[in-house]
Design brief:
This protein is mainly α. It contains 21 helices and 10 strands. The strands form 4 sheets. Strands 1-2-3 form a 3-stranded mixed beta sheet. It has a 3-stranded mixed beta sheet with strand order 4-5-6. A two-stranded antiparallel ribbon has the order 7-10. The C terminus is likely disordered.
Length: 567
């Protein structure tokens, strides 16, 4: 395992091997490995001294100009000791000079302790900044950079868990496991960037709000029972979540909400380290209670783990999002069922006649939910294998988009499930369990076909509600070949671009309240008979409600070969 990236900081962290993404050859899957051990041999430093070197050279914490005087003194001393001209790049000589300085600092006997040697000529603010920069390279669970150094925790949350929990939590975090848990237990802070959301869609809630109750249950499971057996109200968790209306000037203080269990809420030590069938059942019950789906505990073993997780997540979304329709649920469940039988090649070949902004947002909402499934699973003691909760086991964006369009076009369940009887039976069973769970909580799913999916195809003018036919509508432009094969001139392509921009309907902003990319609708200029369509006016689309019309986008043509320059 290694880190594929393009940031020299990865070489400073005492972590996994660092692989260059800039030198990656995709065809052969070969690249360059940066070896920190060999680097240390070349510059005469120990791995634990690399953070100080990085800070003196300049990094994200310590600006390059802040330590300029240290580097000037180091390069002057180095050139006196090595008067011969340096054959390499000037930056290389600077690295060697500062490395010699760092090495000499810890070679002095009087410097027995301290993160930053006292002999380094620094003002108090510069020393404090340098210490902060060096500490930033310490990974959770790692020992101090120098023997005798300690890093006491200033978190008020660690007192709510035992030392064993804290150790396990840090180990999981270093292993890229236990999403969300480390931030809550050790820091009391959780953050999440913006998602693909339509800020002008008043029906679908932002994912930050949809999963708020889920996170509150996770906080409660982690912090409600102190390791000494006492029950106390833990402090609020600071959340930095992007959604419309949140200016992010300060974190939101979110208080834990206890989960609803038939028994008393168990301690975290019991969930994480307990053994026996009773504890296994308790872990499952705790996991499903986070999503208010306690009855699904009895379904363990009846479905594949990934499908059971998908059922839990879609049920939670249905309970939290009033605008979710029966068609949306069908799209979620059918793609989860069909995904198991799809090869990567089949998924890549799925053609979408139109793009729906609502489908994109629902897909993004689901993927965000998968991260909450991972957090809940970790907090509950991992009742489900973490691998079963990874996206590729229960979600594919293109497949979901196709199922969404089919479901909202009134397609029969048999066609929606690719005419596979076993998939259809499994789908109906899942939907039955979901609707029963919703009905117990007075949530009745309504059938509400989305107007944006009831379109007439831009190529043939035929309705696109029936089975596989709609998938073939995007093949017409491919069968006609590239613009050279059709004998078109570059001027024709320029005219197409100009005409296209004449009627396109403004932009659509995705990515939450921050705006983001602007997507523009396009129409295919070629129909099945090979003729050029009239591009002087936009296609007549059913607009429905005013904000719904923005959610449909015609896909731009895909050239069979790249256009010539200037087209």
């Amino acid at each position: 395992m290694g880190i594929l990236g393009q940031d020299s900081d990865f070489l400073i962290y005492d972590s996994a091997p660092y692989l260059s993404v800039a030198k990656l050859q995709v065809d052969s899957l070969t690249t360059v490995l940066y070896d920190r051990q060999r680097l240390c041999q070349a510059i005469g430093l120990a791995v634990t001294q690399l953070p100080l070197l990085a800070c003196l050279l300049g990094n994200d914490v310590v600006s390059e100009g802040r330590m300029q005087h240290i580097r000037n003194n180091a390069i002057t001393t180095y050139r006196k000791m090595h008067p011969a001209p340096f054959s390499g790049a000037p930056q290389g000589q600077m690295v060697l000079a500062v490395s010699r300085l760092v090495s000499s600092l810890w070679g002095r006997k009087e410097e027995e302790t301290g993160l930053i040697p006292q002999c380094l000529n620094l003002s108090d603010p510069d020393r404090e900044l340098l210490e902060r920069g060096v500490r930033s390279y310490l990974l959770p669970g790692q020992e101090a950079l120098r023997q005798g150094d300690s890093f006491p925790s200033d978190s008020a949350f660690e007192k709510y868990v035992s030392p064993e929990i804290l150790k396990a939590c840090r180990e999981k975090h270093v292993a890229a496991d236990g999403f969300m848990v480390y931030g809550v237990v050790c820091e009391g802070v959780i953050e999440c960037s913006n998602s693909l959301e339509d800020e002008e869609d008043n029906e679908l809630l932002p994912q930050a709000l949809v999963y708020k109750l889920c996170r509150q249950h996770i906080y409660s499971l982690l912090l409600l029972h102190r390791h000494d057996g006492s029950i106390t109200e833990p402090p609020a968790i600071r959340e930095w979540f992007v959604y419309p209306g949140n200016l992010l000037r300060e974190p939101e203080l979110i208080h834990p909400v206890p989960v609803s269990l038939k028994c008393e809420q168990p301690s975290l030590d019991l969930l994480w380290f307990g053994t026996g069938p009773e504890v296994s059942t308790l872990r499952l019950a705790s996991f499903f209670s986070i999503f208010d789906c306690q009855e699904f505990t009895e379904l363990y073993g009846a479905f594949e783990d990934s499908l059971l997780a998908a059922l839990c997540l879609v049920t939670y979304i249905a309970l939290q999002v009033p605008a979710l329709s029966l068609e949306d649920v069908d799209a979620y469940l059918s793609q989860a069922v069909c995904l198991r039988l799809k090869s990567p090649q089949e998924l890549q070949q799925i053609k979408l006649p139109v793009l729906s902004s609502r489908a994109v947002q629902l897909g993004s909402l689901y993927v965000r939910g998968l991260s909450h499934l991972l957090g809940a699973n970790s907090a509950s003691g991992c009742p489900l294998p973490s691998a079963a909760l990874l996206p590729w086991h229960s979600f594919d964006g293109r497949l979901f988009h196709s199922k969404y369009l089919l479901a909202h076009s009134g397609t029969e369940d048999t066609v929606l499930l690719d005419r596979d009887s076993s998939c259809l039976s499994l789908f109906l069973h899942l939907r039955e369990k979901l609707t029963e769970a919703c009905r117990r909580r007075s949530r009745v799913l309504q059938s509400r076909p989305n107007p944006e999916s009831r379109y007439r195809d831009g190529h043939t003018g035929q309705p696109s509600g029936g089975g596989e036919g709609w998938r073939e509508t995007t093949e017409c432009h491919r069968s006609r070949g590239g613009w050279k094969e059709r004998g078109e001139s570059r001027q024709d392509q320029r005219e197409y671009k100009n005409q296209e921009s004449t009627w396109e309907r403004g932009g659509h902003r995705g990515g939450g309240m921050r705006g983001g990319q602007r997507l523009h609708p396009h129409s295919y200029p070629y129909c099945n008979d090979g003729g050029l369509q009239n591009m002087s006016s936009p296609p007549k689309l059913s607009r429905g409600r005013s904000y719904r019309s923005r959610g449909k986008y015609w896909l731009a043509p895909r050239w069979s070969q790249p256009p010539a320059p200037g087209t």
